[in-house]
């Protein structure tokens, strides 16, 4: 984990977090880069335990101890910003302490899925 303090909302290092809404995220990041946002230390912890890889983390200084505990020795940039910078960048108050841009894991093949004893097909599910 390496810390980088960012004071400029226009800094390109935090472009993954810019002007986020659910629709904007799905259109901009998910199809192109396979990214999703983990929006709390609890979600980040669970994602890491499931083997998902973080691309970066955006947080305020007051949440740093939680992030250090969860991330441990992983090589991931942690961008430290003020609450004002976080809100300016994302478009909303980041009240859960942090956001993490996470790489979406590779999906199993249809053959692998069908090896299971049960298969459920769900359509039009979001969030």
From TrEMBL:
<dbReference type="InterPro" id="IPR029064">
    <property type="entry name" value="Ribosomal_eL30-like_sf"/>
</dbReference>
<keyword id="KW-0489">Methyltransferase</keyword>
<dbReference type="GO" id="GO:0008168">
    <property type="term" value="F:methyltransferase activity"/>
</dbReference>
<protein>
    <submittedName>
        <fullName>rRNA methyltransferase</fullName>
    </submittedName>
</protein>
<keyword id="KW-0808">Transferase</keyword>
<dbReference type="GO" id="GO:0032259">
    <property type="term" value="P:methylation"/>
</dbReference>
């Amino acid at each position: 984990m390496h810390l980088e303090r960012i004071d400029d909302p226009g800094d390109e290092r935090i472009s993954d977090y810019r002007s986020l809404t659910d629709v904007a995220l799905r259109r901009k990041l998910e199809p192109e880069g396979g990214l999703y946002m983990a929006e709390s230390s609890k979600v980040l912890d669970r994602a890491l335990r499931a083997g998902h890889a973080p691309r970066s983390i955006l947080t305020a200084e007051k949440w740093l101890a939680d992030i250090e505990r969860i991330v441990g020795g992983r090589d991931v940039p942690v961008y430290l910003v003020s609450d004002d910078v976080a809100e300016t960048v994302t478009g909303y108050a980041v009240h859960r302490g942090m956001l993490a841009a996470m790489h979406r894991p590779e999906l199993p093949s249809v053959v692998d899925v069908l090896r299971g004893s049960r298969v459920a097909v769900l359509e039009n599910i979001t969030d």
